[in-house]
Amino acid sequence: MLRCAIIIVCLLSGIVQATELWVDKVQDCYGKEPCYRNINSAINNSNDGDLIWVVIGDYRENIDINKDNISLIGLMEGYEKPVIKSAGISGFSIDLPDLGPGGIVSSQRSSVLIR
After folding, report:
1. I want to staple 41 with a disulfide (CB 3.0 to 4.6 A). Which of 23, 26, 36, 97 is the partner?
2. Residue 55 has what pLDDT?
């Protein structure tokens, strides 16, 4: 019975291990690897449950999150933060438990698609 419990614990510990991927349009992701130049490349190379850290910058791309439980996290420095300049974002939901107000802002634009 003990041997079976140890195998289950080992298997479960491998399941919950998330990989961190980094996106930095113009720098080197602070030396972190893997480092991608655009958000979609990081999403395409991620697995369910991974964390994608996005460094400050303007990212002009349509975002398609086609994996489950991906965390797309923008890094902030002071008042600067990453900006996604996109006509469409699909395949995700916004969940901000206990973090206060949040969401998606589209200013001075029309025909923005969020699915």
Report:
1. 36
2. 92
| Position 79 in a domain | yes
Domain assignment of residue 108, yes or no: yes
- Domain contains 5: no
Task: Give the tens place of pLDDT for each residue, 27-74.
Answer: 899 999 999 999 999 999 999 889 999 999 888 888 888 888 888 888
Q: How many CB atoms lie within 10 A of CB 60?
A: 11
56 Cα distance to chain centroid: 13
Question: Rounded to an integer, what distance in angstroms lies between the CA atom of residue 30 and that of residue 26?
Answer: 11
Return the beta strands (E) in 24-64 as ranges. 35-36, 51-54, 58-60, 63-64
- The answer to whether residues 57 and 83 touch, using CB atoms and an 8 Å cutoff, is yes
Instruction: Name the residue range of residue 35's domain.
Output: 15-114
Predicted TM-score (pTM) of the model is 0.67
Q: How many domains does the chain have?
A: 1
CA-CA distance, 69 to 80, in Å (whole number)?
26
How far, in Å, CA of 101 to CA of 50, rounded? Answer: 24
In a domain? residue 8? no
